[in-house]
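User: quick one, fold this
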Amino acid sequence: MNDRPDLAVETGCDGVHIGAEDAPYAEARRTVGDGAIVGVTCKASYHLAMEAAEAGADYVAFGAYFPTATKETTTRAPLDLLDTWQSVATVPCVAIGGITAENCGPVTAAGADFLAVSSGVWAHKEGPAAAVRAYDAAIRTALAEAGSRSGAGLDPGTSPG
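Assistant:
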């Protein structure tokens, strides 16, 4: 559930994603309980991400990486933030904001563990199923290319983080 810990509980969701303008992490955690997932948007702030991770967030989200009509974009996150995060943190990171199958390669290669997508799936010109296939192909390509550049030999079926 996005933004609303109370609705996450009411509707039986596995967790909630909160943004900077939503409930604070501690309040969201109290509302959904220890067994639920709580993720926190940190925009382009490494500092906010460290605070969220230290408080117990299950994941942190950075972005927006691209223009999006889903939410007002107030901050653009740099790609190197994902790589920096991966080099020091164990909490997974999510890239968010305007991510489509056509532009997801760089954020995947930079170290995003997950991609948060909305209109990239639901507004895809060939429908949601085609969008998911396109994301899958783009992610596999980006991981394979990132592995060949780094010499790490990443398996395209696994997460870079």
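User: anything notable?
Assistant: The two ends are 24 Å apart (CA to CA).
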